Amino acid sequence: MTRDARLPNVKSLTLAEARSVFPEACSGPTLRSFYRLVHREGVRSYGDLAGRIARDRIEALRKRFDIRGLDVIDVRHSPLDGTRKYLLGLPDGLVVESVLIPNRDHATLCVSSQAGCALACRFCATGRLGLRRDLETWEIVDQLVLARRESGHPITDVVFMGMGEPLENYDAVLKAADLFNEPDGACISYKKITISTAGVVPAIRRFARERRKHRLVFSLTSADPEKRRKLMPIGETYPLEDLVDAIREYSESHGGRRWIVLEYVAIRNVNMADADVDAIRDNIRGFKYLIDVIPYNSIGSELSSPSWEEVKAFTTRLRRLQVPVKVRYSGGKDMDSGCGQLGAEEWKRRRIAAVAE
Known about the structure:
Blueprint lengths: L14 H7 L8 H10 L15 H8 L8 E7 L6 E6 L5 E8 L4 E4 L3 E4 L12 E5 L2 H15 L3 E6 L9 H12 L11 E5 L3 H9 L5 E5 L5 H7 L2 H4 L2 H14 L6 E7 L7 H10 L5 E7 L12 H11 L6 E3 L16 H13 L1
Parallel strand pairs: 4-7, 7-8, 8-9, 9-10, 10-11, 11-12
Antiparallel strand pairs: 1-2, 2-3, 3-4, 5-6
C-alpha cells in the first residue's frame, strides 16, 4: 500500500481538483481511468495499476498523488441479518468502525466521521471513548471504497451515523459527502446521503445558509429540556429552544417542503411516557416532522432496552401528535453494530486493559 502524506490523497479530491494537480493529463483518459480505479474499484497500490495504465503514466501519477488506504483489521458478519461491521485501522494506530446493512438488492453504509466522540450521550458507546481526533476526508471516503470492494454489494445509500458527531468535523464530512456524489467516483445521489447530528447549532445554521443538498437529520431523544440535557450533554451548550430554531432555519432553507426527521432513542422507563409525548407537542413546532423511533440498544450501562410491546405502546402514544412515526431496525445488534453500539468493543478492551494494570 502506497503512503506519502506529503502528496494529496486522491480520495480527498474531485476529478476536477485532481486535474489541477496533474494538468498535463487533462486532455487524455489517463487521469479519469486512474481516478475511477481508485474510487470505484478500490485499487490500493500503484503496483496494481500495471497493465491497466501505461508504465510511464503510473510513475507520473506516483509523484503527484498519495493513494493510501485504511487497514482492514477485521470484518464481522451477522448470521441474523447479513450486516457487516468493518474494524478499520487509521495510519496513527487508532481504530474506527463502519457498518454495511444489506437490503434486497442494494445496501446502506454507515460511516464514521471521528475516532471517538466528545459529546458523551448516555445511550451511545462511542461517547464513552472521548474524542481522539477528527477523520480526514480520505479516511471517510475510503470506508465506502473498502466496503464496495469487499462486499460486492451495490451501495446506494450512505449515512453519517457511525462513530463521532459529523458536524463537529464539518469541512471534512461535507467534502466526503460531495465526493460520494462525484460522477467519476461513487456517484451516489445527494438524496441518498444522510448526515445525523446531535444538535451542533452553529453548524446546522451554516448548513442551512449554504443550502447543502444532503439530508440532515436530528437526534432528539427527548423534548423535555432538562431530560434531554441529562441524556445528551450537548443540551447544556445548545439548549433545546436554540436547536428547534436552527432546525426551523434548515427547514426554511428548503422552502419548508422537506420532512424533518427527528431521531428518538426510546429508553425503558426514561423517555417513553405520556409526559414525553406532551413535551414533543409543546416544544417542537414551526416545521413539519416525522419521528424515527430507535429502540435503545444495550451498551452495558444502567439504561434498559424496551420490549417490543413497550415500543408499540409508545408509537401508539406518538401518533396522537398526528405526525408520521416509524421504528428503525438496527442491523447487527448481535455483534455490537446497532445504533449507538459502535465503539463498544474498544470500550471493553480499555476496561480490560485498565483492570490488568
